[in-house]
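Input set for joint prediction.
Command: fold jointly, output tokens.
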Amino acid sequence: MNKAIQVLIDRGFVKACTDIDALSDLMDKEPVTFYLGTDPTGRSLHIGHMVPFFAMHHLQENGHNPIALVGNGTAMIGDPSGKTELRKMLSQEQIMDNSKHIKEQLSSVVDFSENPKPGMGKAQMKFNGDWLLNLNYIEFLRDIGSQFSVNRMLTFESYKQRLERGLSFIEFNYQLLQSYDYLTLYRNCGARLQIGGDDQWGNIVAGTDLIRRLDGGECYGLTFHLITRADGKKMGKSEQGAVFIDPELYSPYDFYQYWRNVSDDDVIKFMKLFTFMSLDEIADWEKVNINEAKEKLAYEQTRIIHGEEEASKARDAAKAAFSTGGDKSGMPSLEVSADDLKKGIGVIDLFASTALCKTKSEARRLITDGGASLNGEKVQDLELVVDSSFVQDGDIILRAGKKRFFRIVVK
RNA sequence: GGAGAGGUUCCCGAGUGGUCAAAGGGGGCAGACUGUAAAUCUGUUAGCUCAGCUUUCGAAGGUCCGAAUCCUUCUCUCUCCA
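tokens >
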């Protein structure tokens, strides 16, 4: 088996391949240009999106050339695969704005530099709007549409669910557009492989079929497991919503905490998928205390996404919160002026002004339930007024429940 | 175009004139137990100036002392027919 593919198999990525032996031979023979598409439907990617990009990283490291395709064209349509409902229509401006963010975010995992290190593949980024947005409808139907059998499409697993709940024609076209992407990248960039999550299987196979029919070219598809957590929840979803890559939407501290709190059963699996640690190193972590392994996982993952400095800050802040010592500065915080504090702030207002509680009712409830603490002391009184006398070492530490901390910094 | 069904609080889903801020489940939050894990049990889950008040049941009007529940118009979704 080809080395690059073996890496992906060993790390637990691979779910299915159109022809793994043929693909392996091809990759042994020459560097392969491969692509992965993402539709910019949100302002930020979340960690669930990242699995195939980590795979892309490993393939690049082994000398193959990635194309990150940003679907600013397909984002106008919406992919029905794996979804139960029609995607909300996005405006062109939103999509372009999203695309910009995504480009930056991918750089943490994939090296887009002009001159990558020797032995590494050269990566590029493409936008499918470049060829999709100005398509001529009639021409497209004649050239591409004629190659697709509706009967066959209807048998695809990805449409089954939607056939029951309703599928609009616009989404039914998605597969044709994604196939056309593949065809275009095959023709213009020599792409021979498309990778993606397993929900993309149908779309990917449709693409290889199209290329074979029109150009007689042999191309491949490789899909990865859709990652689920041991508790059955969707990867990348936290209680608050998606775990975004963008630090504005999801702070590095919370990001670190997300990984710090994964289930025992997921730790090793996630190390393989979401870090660049070698398999040998991971095997060593398997032997040590599971809690330390979680810390390592959280640190590594945060380092990759947010950088060394943020990762250390997040780790120190977590230490400060959960044990003693450590630098608290990475903890989510809010500045309050010394004057305001002198006057005193009601506990309810104080909690409600932080990310700990969204509303005053929620703050009231939290205190009533006995889940709120100030500097480690449980808040008993709803009427309590917090003033300067509560300040210790320049700040006040609020806590909701056992593990949500917030720092009030006096200015 | 015709016929029918339906849009309920974060989600699913009850509710057909007052006892409805709305059953039940899921999810979330909190408490107990723990290892910042899982499982389990308990409480809680619209907002606020919180034993009171205000805004919610697709939208806008109307009937009534009183509507999520009745009427009118609009709108969206689904199913069947052409």
